[in-house]
Design goal:
This protein has 497 residues and is of the alpha/beta class. 55% of the residues lie in helices and 9% in strands. It is elongated and about 100 Å long.
């Protein structure tokens, strides 16, 4: 905004001067006034009364964010604190001959708390905090990006001196935009010039300066960064900020529900177990959406039902107003019943609920809750996942005699899992390099795996044909069936037999 105002004022002033010269007016007073205006602006900017267009936004303290406000990242926080201790104990570090850290790179998926950790780092070290995005440094005009890099470092030093601070933290988000590999933008050397200036500034960070500057960068794609940026002496520490595990998700949920009226019987541990793969941002959204649902219903407390509904909304989107025909509804119910029944038979007590309520791009959905977070997959596990994907189409064939396009995404996921089996060396082909397989070989191996699993699913569901029909009927009637109701149907069949 300030940049646009300055450009507009400059254009108007230049036009006015040219017009006066053409008219033969003495412009000496105008030039004196313009000079006084420039001097006044420079003095005001130096005093920090308005934000600099080249220096980012400065905070002291940075929105009062501390490490206690960040859940689920204990390892990353511990590693970051260890690096920050060199700033706090700079005299002891220098006495030991320890070179000060110049940069810390936070890498990980979106929504895991990298920005919060950078702000908490500034609070922890009692430092001036400036933040900017990598895209703010990139311009089509040569030299502008490099000037902005110099500007944010100079502004950090000026703010620290003015407020009598010895430390400053500069945080650059989306660092891959600014620090991408040189030569990858052949038609635009401005990117390379801007990165070169950043490298120079980082090389100039010395412990003898009256202000210690720590650069913290955040990126989702560390593989895109220039190697010169990652070498020791620039970004000395790389801290992985990954998706939280179950204990981490529980800690995050407790943080985000601390200011919300939860019902006494609400079990956050179960919710943490059922949200595998959620980031901190996802979990914050779940807590927020649950509160919105409770407010919409004018409920005094947020219940488990609100939280479960919020999980589905965050994963798939809002409910849609689609009204399938009765025939489509029957087919959809049979399809989802197949997924749910196969999931429950392969992994007992894993199905949380199954629904034929349309959300986002999904006409129906079966949600399973893993007993533990899983990071390594066996062939048996991947094959069972393929079975669950295929179960919807198999159920349609079993009860209706035909399939529908509703299985398209299921088949895509089954093919992806089959490729994982092949490329991981878990298939009958043994250990192979993916690039050495032709398309025909990959297709044949994938088809063989999927065909074998499809036959297995048919054999799995056939003895439970009656339960499949009953579950589909319940879905048509109620739209949503819980895992407990599904297990009750299976128990009833077991007693009858």
């Amino acid at each position: 905004m300030f940049k646009r105002i300055k450009e507009a004022i400059t254009g108007v002033a230049a036009g006015t001067v040219i017009y006066l010269v053409i008219k033969g007016v003495d412009i000496t007073p105008v030039l004196l006034l313009a000079g006084m205006g420039v001097l006044a602006y420079w003095l005001v900017e130096k005093k920090g009364l308005i934000p600099s267009t080249l220096g980012g936004k400065g905070y002291l303290p940075p929105v009062n964010v501390s490490f206690a406000d960040i859940g689920g990242q204990d390892i990353a926080i511990r590693e970051l604190k260890e690096a920050l201790d060199f700033l706090l104990r700079s005299a002891q570090a220098e006495a030991m001959g320890i070179r000060p850290l110049k940069g810390i790179l936070l890498s990980g998926p979106p929504g895991t708390g990298k920005t919060l950790m950078a702000k908490a780092a500034a609070t922890f070290t009692e430092a001036i905090f400036l933040e900017a995005s990598g895209s703010e440094f990139i311009e089509m005009y040569a030299g502008v990006g490099a000037q902005r890099v110099r500007g944010i470092f100079n502004r950090a030093r000026d703010l620290a001196r003015r407020r009598q601070k010895k430390r400053a933290v500069i945080f650059i988000d989306e660092l891959e935009v600014l620090g991408g590999k040189r030569g990858s933008h052949a038609s635009h050397l401005e990117y390379d010039q801007t990165l070169n200036q950043l490298l120079v500034e980082m090389d100039g960070l010395k412990s003898s300066h009256d202000v210690q500057i720590l650069l913290i960068g955040a990126t989702n794609r560390p593989d895109l960064l220039d190697p010169a940026l990652l070498r020791p002496g620039r970004f000395d520490r790389q801290v992985r900020v990954d998706l939280p595990d179950r204990e981490g998700r529980l800690a995050i949920l407790k943080l985000h529900t601390a200011n919300k009226p939860l019902a006494p019987a609400t079990d956050l541990e179960t919710l943490a177990r059922e949200t595998f793969g959620f980031s901190g941002a996802h979990l914050e959204s779940v807590a927020n959406e649950a509160a919105i649902l409770a407010l919409r219903e004018k409920a005094a407390y947020i219940t488990r039902a609100h939280l479960m509904e919020a999980v589905d909304k965050v994963m798939l989107g809002e409910k849609l107003g689609r009204k399938p025909t009765p025939d489509e509804l029957d087919r959809l119910a049979i399809h989802e019943a197949g997924h749910a029944l196969a999931g429950e038979l392969l992994r007992p007590c894993s199905v949380a609920h199954v629904t034929i309520t349309s959300r986002g791009q999904a006409l129906g959905y079966t949600r399973q809750k893993p007993e533990h977070d899983i990071y390594l997959y066996t062939r048996e596990y991947l094959e069972s996942q393929i079975d669950i994907c295929l179960a919807g189409a198999v159920a349609e064939t079993m009860l209706l005699g035909s399939r529908s396009t509703g299985s398209m995404n299921d088949f895509k996921e089954a093919i992806r899992l089959a490729r994982v089996i092949i490329t991981s060396g878990l298939s009958d082909l043994g250990v192979v390099a993916e690039e050495n397989l032709t398309k025909e070989q990959m297709h044949a191996a994938s088809t063989d795996i999927i065909g074998r699993q499809e036959a297995r699913v048919a054999a799995l569901l056939q003895p439970h044909r009656r339960v499949l029909k009953e579950l589909a009927g319940l879905l048509v009637e109620k739209e949503t069936v819980t895992g407990a109701e599904l297990r009750s149907l299976l128990a009833g069949q077991a007693r009858a037999s």
